[in-house]
C-alpha cells in the first residue's frame, strides 16, 4: 500500500477544481428569454423616463440673467464699470404661488471651476485649520500663496481668491410697501464640509490666528470678518465660502445662495406678486464671456429640474423596444424560413 | 605540413594526451569578452549569476516596450507641474510586475542550473598520468583519452582508438540522434587497434601521441573528415571512426576514444539550435494593438495639448480668474506641460495590470494542464507538464503537427503477430497484443516470453512433425538473418541491426527453433532441442534496391539450401511456376496489410551442388574486380541464385504503436490539424507506420520526390498536382480527392529545397491540400528546417512533438514544442514547452486545454481592451469641458483601485474557469477546434470592434453625465462618483454577458467587485483617513451625498445600460441566429461522414517491407567475420 502511494506521488489531486469540473450554472439563453427581456427593460426605462419627465416638469424654475452685457438691462452700468459694490436691481413678477421650499441660487456660465490647476490651487491642510500652513502655504496655491511683500495669503489659492462676492437681497412689494423676504443662509453647505473638512484653527479670537497673514488679493474683507452679523459664520466655515470651495462639475453651474425662509407669508413658498432683487455687483464675468444669473427653484425627490435625464431614459427605453421588434422579425425569418 | 592541412580544410588540431597544449585554448569569457578556440565540456544553459542577475533581468525586462512606457509614465508622474494623478498609482504595479517576472526567470534559471549540473557531473573515465581516473563530464578536455563502459553515454565526440572487442569493433545505439534503435558498428583504424590493444592498455594509451587534423566543428552528423598523424603516417578518418556525443555504447565492455570535439563543439549540440524566446501569435497581435493604442494616446494627448494651448491663449487675452494659472503666462509652454499630463491621464488605456493578469492567467492554465488526471500516466507516475507557461493559447490554434516517429508514434517494439505457412494463417491480429492468451511453451527450455501470437495448432504441427513446410519456415527464420547472439544466464540474447530480424529470430526461438550462435562459416541452431550445425556458404545481403536477403547453407545432412526472405513483390516474382499455396498466401498478405502489419515473405530453394560450385567460382572471381563492376556483377549473381524459390510463408510483424495513436491522429485530422511525420528512420518503416496509424489511407495516392519535382518544375504546379487524381477517380468531390494525397520525402531530397528556395512556397501551397507529409531520413537540423519552412509559408501555428535528442531542434523551432516524457524523461522534455507522457494525451492538450485557453485568453484580452480603453478615453472627451486642463474625471483612488480591485476579479475568473462546452463535447466535436486555427476570436476585426465599442462607451461615460449635470448644483466630486459608478457597472454587465459558465467563483467575483467598489469608495471618503492626511482624501463626504441622491443612481444606471447596449444587442442577436447555425453545423457533419464511408471502399494495398539501417545490411561484417568473438 505504501509502495503504491509512493509510486503515484505525482498523481494530481482529483478534485472538482483541479479537474475543471466545478459545478457551474450555464444559463442557456434563447430567443424566448432574450426578446421579452429586451421588451421588459425597454418598458422599465420608458416608465422611469416618464416619471422623471413628469417630475421635472412639475418643478418650478425661475432664471434671471443679470450679467448686464446688453445695454438697457438692469445691471449694464455695473458690468461696464469697475466700481466696487456697484448696486443694481432686478424686478420680476410672480403670477402664481412659487411652491416652497424655494431655493435661491446664483448661476455662472463659461466659468471653468473644473480647470485642473484651479481645483488644485488650495491648501487642504490650511483649510483644515493647520496653523503651520498659515505661515507657509502649499506651493499648489501658487501664484496666490504669497503676496507681493512675501506675506502668506490665507486662505491661499485661486479658488478662495476668486470667491463669488455679489450679494443679493430680495424684497416683495405688496400694495406699495416693500418688505424684505428673509433669506436663510444656514446649512447651505455640505455637512461634511462644515463639520470635518474645513476647520478654523482653535485660536480665540479667530483674528489672532491670522496674524502675519494677508487676505486674498480679491477679497474686500479678511476671512475672519466674512459675516459681520454672525460671528460663528466666519473664517473657513463661512457657508458662502464653503459653497464656493465645492468646485462645480462643469463650466455652467449653479450654486446655492440662500433658502427662502419658510415663515410668515412665505410658508408655502413665494406668493404671487412683484419682487425686487437688489444686487451688489462685484464679480466680473464679462472678461471671459461669462454670464451670471439668479435662479429660484423648488425641488422634488430628484432634486432640481432635469429634463435631459427623463428624455434620455425615454429614448433608450424606446430603442430597446424597437430592437426587440427587430429581433422578433429576424427570429421569425430564421424560424420559419420556408414561409418566404 | 601545416600548409597542407590548411588546404584540405583540416584546421582543427587535436593532440592526444596533451592537456597542457589544449587547456589554454579553451574558450573563456569575462563579461562580454570571449577568447579561446575549443569549447570545454560544460553545458551552460543558465543565464544569470548572482552578480549579473539584477542588471540582466532589468535589462531584459526593460526591453519590453510596455515596461519602458510605464517607467516613463512613472517619471512623468513625479513631476509636480504635470502630475495629473499621483505617482503611487503606477509604482506599485510596476514594481510588482518587475519583481514577479524577475522571480519567475530566476526560478527557471535555477532549474536549468540543476539540470546542467546533473549532466555536467555524469561520470566518465579519463586517462590522466597513465591511469584512468573517475572524473566528471565537465572535466573532459580536447585531446583526452577516455574509457567508456558498456551502456555509458559518450560525453564528447570521440575518435575510436580501440575497444575490448575483436578488431576494435564497437556497437553504438544512436536513438538519441536519429531515432533508430538498432545497433550500429564503429570500428577503429587497424593501426590504432593493433598497437594499442597488444600492450596493456593504459600504458599504451598514455604514450599515444597521435595528432588528429580534421575539419572545424560542424553540425553534419553523418560525415567526418580528418587525418590521424601518427608515427609519421597519415591515416584518413571518416565518420565510421567517430563516436558521437549522446550515443550509447552497447555490447562492448570498453571502448577507448580520443576526445576531438567537446561541449558546444560536438555535433549533437551543433544540431540543437539556439534557444529562442517563444511568443504567441496572439501576443504579437495584441502587442501591435497596444502599440496602436499608445500611438493613439500620444496623438490624442497632442490634440488635447493643442487645445490647451489655444484655450490658455484665450485665457490670457481675457484676463479671467484662470489666466493667472497659465504656466509662465505662456500658452505654448502650458500646452507642452498639458501634453505630458494627458499622457499620464490616458495611460490607463494600456494598463500595467494587463501584463500581470496575462501572466497569471497563463500560469493558472498551465497548472490546470499539470493537474489534469486524464493526462496523467499512471504507469510512470508522470503528469503532464507545462514547462513554458506563456504559450497556452497557441495550443488552441495549432494548424500543423509535426511528429517524430520512433518513441512518439511507435513504442519501438516489434511483435510477430501472425504468420501464414503453406497458406494456413496462424495467430489473430484483431486481438490486442496484451490480450493474447500466452501459449504453453514450457516444453521449450529457451523460451523466455515475448511472443504475442497464439497458435497452438502451429506448435502441435511443429512438434508432431506433421508439416515439413512449417519446419522449413522456422529453419529459415532461424538461419536467414544477420543477428548476433550474446549469452546471458544460459539464454541467448539477440542483437540485431534490424529490429524486424530480432523479432523474427525471437519468435523462432519461442517456437523451438533457437538460433544459438554463429561463427564466420557456420550457424548453430537448436531445432526442438536437437542442435544442428549449418555451414554458412554465402550471405546475400540486403540492400534497399534488392529488398531481400538470403543465406546459402549446407545442411548437416549435406544438401545445400538457399533461404530467402524479403518484400512480397520481389519474392513472389522469383517463385517457381505453379507454386502451391500462392493464392492463399497472397490473400493472407492482403489480410495482414489490412491489419497494418508489416509482412515478409519467406522462401526456400534447394541448390544443386554443381550449380553452387559454378556460382561460387564466379563469386570468387568478382572479389578481384573494381568496385562498381563488382557491384553490378554481384547483383546479377545474387539474382541468379535467388530463383525458382519455393514459397514457405509470410510473417506479419506489428510495429507497436503507442496507445491510442490512430484515434488521436484521426481526431486531430478531423479538427483540421495537418499531421506530418518527420523521422530519421527509413522510408519503408515510416510509410508503414503512416498506414498503421491511419495517417495514410490505404487508397491514398503517395507522391514521391521524382513526381513532386516534376510537379514543382511544371509551370502550374497546382494543376499538375491535382490532375492525375481527378482523372483516375470516380469521385465527384475534388477536395476529397486531393485530401487523399500524401507526400513522402527523404532527407537528401529535402536538401534540394535549399538550392531552390522558390519551391518552398509552392510546396507548402500543395501540402496544404495533402492528407499528410512524411519526411524520412532527416537529420535533426533538417527537421527544424521543415518546421521553419512551414512557419515561413503559412500563418498557421506549428507544433512539434518528439521524445529524443534528435527532436530537440524541431521542438525549439516550432511555435509550440511538446516533449514526450514516456518511460524516462529526456532531452526533448528539457527543451520542450509542454511535456506529456503519452502521444494520445495530445488530443486533450489541444482540443480541451488548448481550445479553452484560446477562448479564455481571447475573451480576456478583448474584455481588458474594452474595459481599460473605455475607462481612460473618457478624459479625452471631458477635456473639452474643463479647458483641456488634464483634469481627471475620477478620483485618483478610483484610478488606482479600478483595474485591480473593482474590475479584475470577474475577468480573471472568466479567464480561469470559462468553458463554452464541456471537455467531453470538445473531444466529441473536433470541428469546434477550427475556430482557433482561423484566429476567429482575436482577429484584427474583432479587436477593432472591441476598440470601437470602448470608444463608444467612453463617449457615453462622458456625455450623458455632462448633459445631466450641466447647469445644475451638482459639484465635480458627485459627478466623478457618478461616472465611476457607471464605469464599474458597465464593466460588471459586460462580464456578466461574456460569462457562460458560472462557477461559485465567478458569482463571488462579481459580487465582491461591486461590493469592493462601494466599500473602498466609502473608506477613501471617510473622515478618519481625511484627518490623517487631508490632501490625499479630498473626496471626504462626497459619497455620503452621491449615494443618497437618486439622480446619481439613475444617471449611473442609464450610462451603464447605454454603454453596454451594443454588446447586449450583439449577444441577443447571436442567440437568435445561433439556433439556426447549430442546425447547419449538424447537417454538415452528417454529410461528411457519409462521404467518408463511401471513400473507404477502396481495396487496401499490400505492404511488405523490411529494412535495415542506412540502406545496406550488415552482412559485410558477418562474412568478414570481424565481429566474431575469438
Notes on the structure:
- The complex is a heterodimer of chains A (340) and B (1126).
- Chain A is an alpha+beta fold and 340 residues long.
- Chain A has 2 domains: 34-59 and 302-335; 68-96 and 109-252 and 273-290, no CATH class.
- In chain A, 30% of the residues lie in helices and 19% in strands.
- In chain A, strands 1-11-4-8-7 form a 5-stranded antiparallel sheet. In chain A, strands 2-10-5-6 form a 4-stranded antiparallel sheet. A two-stranded antiparallel ribbon of chain A has the order 3-9.
- In chain A, α2 packs antiparallel against α11.
- Chain B has 1126 residues and is an alpha+beta fold.
- Chain B has 4 domains: 140-272, Distorted Sandwich (Calcium-transporting ATPase, cytoplasmic transduction domain A), CATH 2.70.150.10; 281-368 and 848-918 and 935-1065, Calcium-transporting ATPase, transmembrane domain, CATH 1.20.1110; 385-408 and 658-719 and 739-836, Rossmann fold (3-Layer(aba) Sandwich); 412-656, Calcium-transporting ATPase, cytoplasmic domain N (3-Layer(aba) Sandwich).
- Chain B has 41 helices and 35 strands.
- In chain B, strands 16-35-34-33-17-29-32-31-30 form a 9-stranded mixed sheet, with helices on both faces. In chain B, strands 19-18-28-27-26-25-24-23-22 form a 9-stranded antiparallel sheet, sandwiched between helices.
- The two termini of chain B are 41 Å apart.
- The model of chain B is unreliable at 1-6, 726-733, 1079-1101, 1107-1111 and 1121-1126 (pLDDT under 50).
